[in-house]
């Protein structure tokens, strides 16, 4: 966990998860994906140790919505698929 994470803590979850929250959560997971660095995995977007705050928030939102790992993987894959 990064020092800023210790200070700020996790991003609060919404009181109930809407379809819009799911869209934002998938985007957060996609944008804040891991990238391998010499010191270990880092967030591709902000270079914080992975998983960063926004990746964790996105994952928690999708978990709260009741999505399985497989469903989350499918949503992320759809988000990152090249447009034809």
Describe the structure.
This protein has 84 residues and is mostly helical. The protein has one domain. Helices cover 52% and strands 10% of the residues. It has four helices and two strands. The chain has helices at residues 3-8, 19-31, 53-65, 69-80, and strands spanning 34-37, 40-43. Strand 1 (34-37) and strand 2 (40-43) form a beta hairpin. It is globular. The relative contact order is 0.19. The model has no long low-confidence stretch (mean pLDDT 90).
Strand content: 5-15%
Overall form: globular
- Tell me the total number of β-strands: 2
> Helical content, roughly?
40-55%
Unreliable residue runs: none
Number of helices: 4
Write down the overall mean pLDDT.
Answer: 90
Order of helices and strands: HHEEHH
Show the helix and strand layout.
Blueprint: H1 3-8, H2 19-31, E1 34-37, E2 40-43, H3 53-65, H4 69-80
Antiparallel strand pairs: 1-2
Helix pairs in contact: 2-3, 2-4
Summarize the structure.
This protein is mostly helical. Helices cover 52% and strands 10% of the residues.
Core attributes:
84 residues; two-stranded antiparallel ribbon; 4 helices; 2 strands; globular
